[in-house]
From TrEMBL, chains A, B:
This is NADP-dependent aldehyde dehydrogenase. One of its GO terms (molecular function) is aldehyde dehydrogenase (NADP+) activity. Pfam families: Aldedh (PF00171). It comes from the Bacteria.
Amino acid sequence: MTTLPPALDATAQAAADAAEPFAATAPHDRARALVAVADALEAHADELVGVAAAETGLTEARLRGELKRTAVQLRLFADTIVDGEYLDVRIDEADPDFALGVRPDLRRYLVALGPVLNFAASNFPFAFSVAGGDTAAALAAGCPVIVKAHSGHPELSQRTAAVVAEALAGAGMPDGVFQIVTGQEAGVALLRDPRIAAGSFTGSIHAGRLLADIAASRPAPIPFFGELGSVNPVVVTEAAVRERGDAIATGFVASVSGSAGQLCTKPGFVFVPAGHGLDDRIAAEAAQIAEHRLLNPRIADSYKDRRDAVASAPGIRSIADGEIRIAEDGHGWARPSVYAASLADVAAAGAAVLDESFGPLAVLVEYGPGDDLVGALDTLFEGNLTVTLHVGEREDDERIRGLVQAATRHAGRVLFGGWPTGVAVTPAMQHGGPWPATTNDASTSVGTAAIGRFLRPVSYQDAPAVLLPAPLRDDNPWGVPQARARAGESLNWGSHAAN
Amino acid sequence: MTTLPPALDATAQAAADAAEPFAATAPHDRARALVAVADALEAHADELVGVAAAETGLTEARLRGELKRTAVQLRLFADTIVDGEYLDVRIDEADPDFALGVRPDLRRYLVALGPVLNFAASNFPFAFSVAGGDTAAALAAGCPVIVKAHSGHPELSQRTAAVVAEALAGAGMPDGVFQIVTGQEAGVALLRDPRIAAGSFTGSIHAGRLLADIAASRPAPIPFFGELGSVNPVVVTEAAVRERGDAIATGFVASVSGSAGQLCTKPGFVFVPAGHGLDDRIAAEAAQIAEHRLLNPRIADSYKDRRDAVASAPGIRSIADGEIRIAEDGHGWARPSVYAASLADVAAAGAAVLDESFGPLAVLVEYGPGDDLVGALDTLFEGNLTVTLHVGEREDDERIRGLVQAATRHAGRVLFGGWPTGVAVTPAMQHGGPWPATTNDASTSVGTAAIGRFLRPVSYQDAPAVLLPAPLRDDNPWGVPQARARAGESLNWGSHAAN
């Protein structure tokens, strides 16, 4: 039935064999295992950060912060599952007098999907990689994980995987709950394997679309959660420039240049009123940003091409023309590039300017009093992870409300007066958005709600108590929240209708 | 941008124009509109049931029950949305001391996806059609609906649509929130249109796969919720036959023959111990079932072919050989057909026996003491809407637990001691299952949880109070439940770890 090479087949089978024992572990035990992984990562921080810095060119400070975030993420998922609320237990008591005739006893909860194949990202070697968000969410849900390592940090991937696997084994989790594979071919072959129940991915639109199409065209399609491309438009109103133009310029340059602009939430386009007067401040801020190595030579080449395309588009003005230097080893070193053009010129340039530039580059889109900003958001861009609005202190007129509405249409997160980089890992975070920001708009890849992508509901009808899963039993051995529809309570509309 | 014919284009544009005004209506107002639709359907019951009976051949009793179910469904969704809990509001208060540094104020809730294209089913002219479950769920979520009418009941579709549209308008809902189109070409063209945000479908594997592939391969893919094929295996243990064999035979024949077997949850395969001794009882029960018209000539032809294939497979024994009669008008009339064969013969026959037969036909799969039932469930069938277990009074040994586990793997609902037809519309219902039962295993098409398929999350970061959507505001004008993560409370694992 399978056509995988033997080693890969063994990996898939180990994940399949682990699926039910792992799904059956109590949330409290799985939570302790996640905490053990977090502890182990922090205990190995010096070693891991050293390897990561050498392989990615990211700064030690950034990598230490990212490792901490990765550990906190695991702890947050431990918190999320420990009380069992995530199981969404619903119990409909049998009701002989239900509006549609006798209603059976029905009990529903969420079960783990099964083995998850997680394609790691290049730009977050910890937080979106081997032990990153999707791994944490899948393990929290009770799904075995196979990580397809990113080729940009191979040694870090293997070392991290060893730390994770050892911590999980030490916490008593079954064999096969966590494995790693390398190479694009292996990833694609596993994605086609019937034992894989879901895929997750962070990377380019091109690769993401390819994998999403494979997942959708399998004999039995599976869900695929891809986070692809986003240019994160920002709109700054005239009032905001008047009130705090300099602070906006400073925050903007910091957000564009952090991690050399290699962040999925980098603000790529900033709508500013023509005549904003921020050029000098932006140029001065950009001049202070040191040259930063890009993640790998491939990204450097592609960034160079994008930068050339933007810089040479008709109507483009350079505010900070950060050079990119390709070193002898093929690595590229970049400083921030900020360009500006009128809204009309940007629209006329099309993809040459509007496509994502993965690196420290942004374009100020200068609008005039008659320009339609909502129309620009609607037509220039597809879906985005974020849209950011910088408005004046008490600005809440129809134009602003229209912008909030447009932002809500096109993004998973709408920010006010801040910058989209730096994604908080919390219950209310939404890191997603309409295509091509993600392949699956109903999901998030950051924040504790991400656990939902790896769960599916199952109902049990009239089950004998001894055969029910623990969270559905009346004696509730795990003490999970159980939402009950009691007999006679099942149709309440009558009372509401009186309002 | 669009290539739709003008009338269809106007339909899509009306839905798109309605999307934001409709999404912005208060849950209470939308709930009242759903109740108005329910009231209107019930007020028109005599007329609608008459048209439905003529077009579908279903009995008046069945159709009256189905209309009532459809109305109750609308009322249940009104109940579901009226308190706003479905919005899943999460508020993370700003926290200067969060584990990863300053945390912003983040507020997340679920918003309507946008216009939904709902492909109606043939076999439930009310409950899975114009005003059926997907329509109710989408309207409840605040999504405009375009129904692609099923060709099997054209006049009923138009009359129902008129009743629904008038009731929604009377309840003050915006123009364009509910529309109907006819013809496969129109459906496919709309599914490709960028203004459509999601598709839903109930029907065959063939048509469902075709539409799912279209939705997945759009330039911007959209979610597609298809309910396709299911054969709903039933396992009866030796103890169950001993304890209540006659009752099982009676319940089985009723479930197979209800609505002439044209139900997605019809039990198509029943595993019984060899030597069960139920043949006579089953034959006697089947003999009492009157001839029933199948929904339409196409279904009759295809049922006839399936029945011929099963009846002529090697090793098949006939218990009740219900003839199918094709009348001069092309309509087919059928009585229940029950066949039996050994597990080995069924496995050897493959698709000829194992494919779904849409009509009043089921196969008893006779197993011996050495046969592996879990293996049979794992290998003979793909995903199913239901798996049913009939076990003895106090049977809870390892074999039974293995069957429960296998049932959970392969179905969205696991029943004990009952029959899968007759799906309760309640909070704990799960009407879904792994491919090809559905295209999207994390969703349900019956029960109030179905609203989730038409929602997506959006977060607002540091938004001024005046610009926040009503459910996210601290003054909470709609009075919805708001889950708050307060400053300092954000990482609780420390305390849990002490357990």
